[in-house]
Design goal:
2 domains, alpha/beta, Rossmann fold, 14% strand
């Protein structure tokens, strides 16, 4: 499956939709973080959206397109580890559409609570995201609810607005490190780079304990990989999306695998140097940059703090380790 990337005009139109709910998030060059990395390090603060993660942008544009086409459904359902579910819950509430979200058993308590606070009917099923997704698809077929995917052009146009903001603000960036979950963040970075003609190299980042995208890009086909990460739940995907792979293949410079231990250290570093809270996936970009810091001298590095939704108990354990 080949998916058309959003054009500059489409990304700008998506930004108008996003900005009805919140304004552009900041990007800062943090001095201590740059000192630690050994070169200029800019952080895109998607932890500053109203749901604490970048995903909200995609939910807003997805529902906007349903409305424009006269296709708003009677109800929606989706699957998530948390941030996508908050995005869909927020957008569904804004359009008065009942929303159910399937999460794996043992999912983040605080992400679950945040979704319920948005009016979501939460369904706990499965041992990982893939099982939750398959269950959501079955429930949609049984109930007639609209199944909101985790990867779709109308999500991508919204998510692309955050990298569009970054590239416009940091035209001197040489390389960016982008966490890969189900693929929307990395593909959005590609879309924004191409739309603006930016020079930056894009490095994909996966959990060393959830390697489907790294393995699939190397093999040239979908390779299912087991998920055992305990910290980077936003990257805990077992099966890559073919459309996302097709977009990434020609445009991702390379892929870095980061361990839970490296992610935990990045969470500590980000907190110490910026006093921002990063969830596991939100710290993965900096973990990858630190892994390659010997290659980055005199380069301008961009990372995304893509989400800050980590349970308090998990954060305390990481920070005090």
């Amino acid at each position: 499956m080949n998916m058309k990337l959003p054009t500059l005009c489409e990304i700008e139109a998506a930004a108008e939709v996003v900005y009805r709910e919140f304004q552009a998030t900041p990007q800062y060059r943090w001095a201590l973080l740059s000192q630690r990395l050994g070169t200029d390090c800019w952080v895109k603060h998607e932890n500053h959206t109203p749901v604490g993660a970048f995903k909200l942008r995609g939910g807003l544009t997805y529902f906007d397109q349903l409305k424009r086409r006269g296709l708003l459904p009677a109800s929606v359902i989706s699957a998530t580890r948390g941030n996508h579910g908050q995005s869909i819950g927020w957008a569904a509430r804004a359009h008065s559409v009942p929303c159910s979200i399937v999460v794996p058993l043992g999912n983040s308590l605080e992400k679950n609570a945040a979704m319920r606070a948005l009016g979501v009917t939460l369904i706990e099923h499965g041992t990982d995201f893939q099982e939750s997704r398959e269950h959501a698809i079955c429930l949609a077929a049984q109930s007639g609810a609209h199944m909101v995917p985790s990867f779709h052009p109308d999500l991508l146009s919204g998510v692309s607005t955050y990298w569009w903001e970054f590239f416009k603000a940091v035209p001197q960036a040489d390389v960016i490190y982008v966490p890969i979950g189900q693929g929307s963040g990395a593909c959005a970075a590609i879309a924004a780079k191409l739309a603006l003609g930016h020079k930056a190299r894009i490095v994909g980042v996966v959990s060393a304990h959830a390697t489907t995208y790294a393995d699939s890009l190397m093999a040239g086909r979908i390779v299912e990989a087991p998920v055992s990460t305990l910290l980077a739940d936003g990257m805990a995907c077992r099966v890559a999306d073919q459309a996302a792979l097709n977009i990434m293949k020609p445009h991702i410079d390379h892929v870095i695998k980061v361990s839970d231990a490296e992610v935990a250290q990045a969470m500590r570093d980000i907190y110490a140097d910026t006093h921002n809270v990063a969830e596991g996936a939100g710290a993965a970009g900096f973990a990858a940059a630190m892994q390659e810091r010997h290659l980055l001298r005199d380069q301008v590095v961009g990372i995304t703090l893509s989400g800050g939704n980590v349970d308090a108990a998990t954060l305390a354990k990481v920070l005090l380790a």
